Amino acid sequence: MTATTEAATRPAPGEGVPIVAVRDVHVTYRSRLGGLFSAQRVHAVNGVSFEVRRGETLGIVGESGCGKSTTARVLTGLEEPTSGQVFFRGEPVVRRTAADRKRFGRVVSVVFQDPATALNARMLVRDTLRDPLDVHRVGSPAQREARVRELVAMVGLPASALDALPSQLSGGQRQRVAIARALALEPEIVVADEPTSALDVSVRAQILNLLSDLKNELGLSMVFISHDIQTVRYVSDRILVMNAGRIVEEGSAEHIFEQADDPYTRTLMAAAPSLLHPSR
Ligand SMILES: Nc1ncnc2c1ncn2[C@@H]1O[C@H](COP(=O)(O)OP(=O)(O)OP(=O)(O)O)[C@@H](O)[C@H]1O
User: Is 252 domain-assigned?
Assistant: First the structure.
């Protein structure tokens, strides 16, 4: 099949079989407030179901504490749901053993909020990018070195950055390294959890554009999580609005902004007046 015919038969973003489906997931924690022996439970995620489809950016938005990060951790396998299930291409994801988790970790990767804490301060960028390739024994040593160079170029950093420690880079450059690391194993889905919140306002748009460009170039799906509905609107094809552990609204970015039904969604939008009503 030629590249053109393949592109013609490939489903458009958001169409086709979901890559990952989350079904009726609940996560409860022992409350942090009641002390070590507290019997109080926090229902962080309360019956959440959604799908991530090929080539789309799915935005998850809601106020702090609504369960966004917990949902992301379930999606990436960092957290097991208390009940409910995650499916990969229709098959239940089993993550009982380290090998299961390693296999699923190649499919879904994650970019965290703060690259200063997400990157190992004592590792050179070269070693940070090489680490997942070594762990998964990808190619020969020469191929791994070539991949590391390719990754650093993909995120717009010079080759000289390979010999830097995180502390020698700016916040934006560090987040580029974290993105490169997330792409190292050619994942199908990148989960970006508040990826610009810890950055200077001046570099936020650059990082958002980089993520969107890479998603399009590599044919990835992205789950973009933020408390900021303007940022979510900027990058997302489809948006889930979360409140108190539940999804209260779901739809295209246009639908959410033009015909939101849920009062909570309207409240979130009212807190973003400059984008909604630029003339005000
Ligand atoms: N490990 C934990 N132990 C106890 N409670 C937790 C734990 N992790 C999260 N929670 C609680 O679960 C709820 C949801 O937290 P979560 O971090 O998923 O929300 P969030 O929307 O991502 O918020 P933020 O943007 O502030 O991280 C909150 O009430 C939080 O305090």
Answer: yes
> Measuring from each residue's beta carbon to the nearest atom of ligand 1, which residues come in under 6 Å?
29, 32, 42, 44, 62, 64-70, 227
Size (the chain), residues: 280
Domains identified in the chain, total number:
1
Instruction: Note the pLDDT of residue 16.
Output: 62
Which CATH number covers residue 247?
3.40.50.300
Instruction: Report how far ligand 1's centroid is from the alpha carbon of 219 (Å).
Output: 31
Question: Can you tell me the ipTM of this complex?
Answer: 0.96
| Owning domain of residue 120 | 20-271
Which residue has a Cα nearest atom 2 of ligand 1? 29
The order of strands in the sheet holding 91-92 is: 41-53, 18-30, 83-88, 91-92
The confidence score (pLDDT) of residue 277 equals 39
Residue 87 bridge partners (DSSP): 21, 92
